[in-house]
Write a structure and sequence with these properties.
The complex is a heterodimer of chains A (167) and B (234). Chain A is mainly α and 167 residues long. Chain A is 66% helix and 0% strand. In chain A, 14% of the residues are buried. Chain B has 234 residues and is mostly helical. The chains are: A mainly alpha (167), B mainly alpha (234). The interface between A and B is large, with 53 and 67 residues.
Chain lengths: 167, 234
Amino acid sequence: MKHEDLKPDTGVRCDRAREILPRYLDGELPEGQAAALRRHLMACPACRAAAAEGRALERWFVPGEAPRVPEGFAARVAARATSGVSAAAAPERATSAPATATPATGALRDFVLLATAVAAAALFALSVWLGLRARPSGEALMAEPLGEVLQELEALNAAEAEGPSAR
Amino acid sequence: MGAALTRPRPSLPGPHSATSRPADAGPTDPRAPVPPMPEAEFDDADLVRATLAGDGEAFQTLVERHQGRLFALAAHYTRSRAEVEDVVQEAFLKAYSKLATFQLQASFSTWLHRIAVNTALDLLKRHGRNPVTAVEDPESAARDAGGAVAAPGAELEREEVAEVTRRVLEELPEIFRTVLVLREFEERSYLEIAEILDVSIGTVESRLFRARARFKEALRRLFPEYAEPRESAS
């Protein structure tokens, strides 16, 4: 019997049967096709032998003795995961949540914030004091120009008092 | 099962969720006891939600639920018990760190197996084992070397059959070993295998076909006594 032989009683050719046989043996074939293939296998000794060979191979896949899970394995893994021993082993949401903050880390954070604020205030006060110390006062800023104007005015008055001949 | 699972799960994020208390905190309100609920009532998605909300015991329950299958899976890649444990532990830690990316409507088991398979393959690469894929394109491997193999005889004990199979599998490129392990031992569907390996179902089918042919060839070569030479049925 050749694979190309058409099985008029089943509607499935041998080449097609061989193609879908693995899916059938794996239970992955839709029931409609599986029923047609079963009818073909009933009528075709060659394809039936191929199916038997596939089933024989499956019998080699027997699981060996299951490896023993060490006692306390789950607890150790969970503890390691949740304790943050490994930085990479923290859920993304958990790392961003404040649930991991402890009272000790909270107090340290408050102290750092307070110290930063005090230092900033002191720095501001120092800069203001230094600025005021180096900058001339309002009077000083106005004295020199006013004196020069007055001197110029006095000179002009004196010149006028001396009369036109003086020009 | 930890004590935390005696209260309803999941503990969804909210103003009074675990985000505002230590992750290992006990029951939040002992004045309002809740009748214990059987563990089976919590599916994997519930436990994932609770873990993401900071419940460490929920993650431990997930580990307990899946550790057996992962140990069996990892044992197909190494004979060293220490390495098996390392692979499984690393897989769970990776899963924990990536838990927020898990789609709750998907299968946690399939997602976890994908991580475990990749972790096991990383182990093989680190140890420089099974470099066959570097010199041979598995997809173009011979479709069938011809000949057949008999089913294991009744004289073989179960453990003997398992050892023969194990030795044959060790001969195969990892790409074939993995698909056979997932199908024959894990009994995963084509769709699940496709999701675990991130390939199409057609690729799974094709790879399984070639993997079985390679398995038969290796079995005949390593254990010729199990060969069943005969004319092809075609």
